[in-house]
Each structure stands twice: as C-alpha cells, then as structure tokens.
Amino acid sequence: MSLRGVFALQSFDFSRDKRLLGFIGKSIRSVELIAVENDTEPFGVMINLDSDSLIVVPISDGSTVITSQFGNRSALECFKHLG
After folding, report:
1. pTM to 2 decimal places
2. Where does the pLDDT of residue 2 fall: very low under 50, low under 70, confident under 90, or very high at 90 and above?
3. What is the average per-residue pLDDT within 56-61?
4. CA distance 27 to 40
5. Cα→Cα distances 29→7, 17, 67, Å
C-alpha cells in the first residue's frame, strides 16, 4: 500500500491534555497506513510508539485521534462497513 495524491498537513495541540502526557518523549517504532480489507487506498494512519499507538482517522467533522486510553474505535468499524 502506498500514498498517492494530494495530502494536507494536519497538526494537533495535545499540550493541555493530561491523557497524552505518556506519549511525550516516546520513540516512534513504526508508522502504518490503515485501509479497509481488500482495498489499496488508505484512509488513516497508525503511529506505533513504545507502549501505545496513536490512530488518526477521518470522521464527519474532520478527523479524530484514538489511543488505548481514549477515542471511539467505532470510527474504524464504520470504514469496514463502508468498504
């Protein structure tokens, strides 16, 4: 799977969210593209860190971040049904 096309830069300010303090100073182990099974077009990205992952996927209002501590994983399930 590869990225093609036009991409927009997206940034998130987590500096005031105590739930994300555990991510500060962690090493990025890998970055994976997320796609619906049997589809080659990715719709999200997973950043694997030392002890958790940050998943960024689009939603109707823009995008959302999911970790093991918070976030609605139903956004991932929604894409599986749309695919």
Report:
1. 0.70
2. low
3. 80
4. 28
5. 23, 23, 15
Taking a C-beta distance cutoff of 8 angstroms, is the pair 32, 46 a contact? Answer: yes
Length of the chain: 83
**How far, in Å, are 15, 53, 79, 81 from residue 12 at the CA level?**
9, 15, 22, 27
Give the CA angle between residues 7, 11, 9 to the nearest 5°: 15
What is the domain partition of the chain in residue ranges?
A: 23-82
Cβ neighbors of 72 (< 8 A, separation 6 or more) are 64, 66
Residues of the chain above pLDDT 70, percent = 73
Nearest to 79 by CA among 47, 37, 40: 37
